[in-house]
Structure prediction request, 492 residues.
Amino acid sequence: MTDSGILAEPAHIGTGSGGPLVVLENVNKWFGSLHVLKDINLTVHRGEVVVVIGPSGGGKSTLCRTINRLEPIDGGTITLDGKHLPEEGKELARLRADVGMVFQSFNLFAHKSVLENVTLGPTKVRKVGSADAEKEAMALLDRVGIGDQARKYPAQLSGGQQQRAAIARALAMRPKVMLFDEPTSALDPEMISEVLDVMTQLAREGMTMIVVTHEMGFARGAANRVVFMADGQIAEENTPQEFFTNARTDRAKDFLSKILTH
Amino acid sequence: MDWKQALFDFSPFWKQSGTVAAAFWATIRLSAMTGVLSLIVGTLLVAMRVSPTPVLRAAGTLYVNTLRNTPLTLVLLFCSLGLSDTLQFRLSQTSTVNYYWLAVFGFSAYTAAFVCEALRSGINTVPFGQAEAARAIGLTFTQSLRLVVLPQAFRAVIAPLGSVMIAMIKNSTVVLVASYIEASAQMKQMFEEFGATLPIFLGFAVGFMLLTLPTGFLFGWAAKRWAVLR
Ligand SMILES: Nc1ncnc2c1ncn2[C@@H]1O[C@H](COP(=O)(O)OP(=O)(O)O)[C@@H](O)[C@H]1O
Ligand SMILES: [Mg+2]
Prediction:
């Protein structure tokens, strides 16, 4: 872990040249008659940061949720580090622990302090002793800049602080990959950067990340690849630079023109 | 009996203070044990009712709907007459101990259905994202329920659970049909012995309030103390 100040140096983007870590093959998903994921093929390599972007209702959240099987899929395969996602039960719970997830609405456990939020997974899932878990949790909270809030309850924190606590909670499981589903969409504008800074730092340290976001600054500064999703399909993927300046499909061009004028 | 006696004579309580105290003690023992057991069984029932296993869900629903819609008197008569006398199901050789436990079982089985439903409405106040986040860090279904969902559900329904407990204490008077002597049975006995006078009624009514009012205050205080901030 580096303890250099967040964003103290220009972003140095890893190439994500590790082996495949998350592999989706021909993944299909229906909600009733609604075909939400259509033949999705996506490979995310170790150390890679992939930004998923696209219009609302396009299936981005569902894609994230299928990767740790909060949603079951109806066709295709998903492997994590070469292993197929198990169906249900203990095996699946163990695998989920390897996938960190950060939600738009934070979802911190409301009846537990920030510190307890972070130590719950390590003590109950990983069976780490509580003293060790607390020490590590404090280090993580310091790292995301809210060590002094450890004893407070989520409702006593600002949105930005809550989201950073949620990131610390996910990191405490030492996940192989982190999923972020619009982590800054529920935040007041002045709190967005404190969360993005933490994510950028994480990317720089080599964490494999799949990030649903419309924050182009983050995509340009931290992502290796941008995946554009619309209507349940991956319509286009490219480097951030190429995607934002030379989108190939009309759908992407149309989408970008809408978010760029805002 | 003259009207002064019927309205102002509290002396039967002094004459029978020992048995009155014993009767209220019996009510307390019955209510306390039932409170504890019904909370435990009610929690297990609600876990069944929200479990992903259809068989468990169906069993939980069947249980709750059956017990909640059967008069307590019938449940207790079944326990005392059916289980004990007809089926010779005995929990103790001493008959008072036997009736105590049969009453506790019938009464707890009945009250647990109401505890379960109070808790289930509490679960509905817990945002879906809480359980989702619990699953996402790798907790199993049971762990999510035990560590995240139920603690929040409990805190949300402490006040309604207090009402369930107050109703339970008052319902304990029905237990007299199960041959267990508690406060209301004692009142009936004194009515027969001294006549149904206002002082005797008031004495027992106040006795029950001394049990129910603090219960209400305790649960009200706890509801505030453990409220979940959102
Ligand atoms: N649990 C669900 N049940 C039914 N339909 C759903 C559910 N979740 C999402 N959908 C539908 O699936 C589509 C994709 O949703 P989502 O993955 O949330 O898109 P995005 O995150 O890109 O906005 C939408 O049409 C949405 O209404
Ligand atoms: Mg979404």
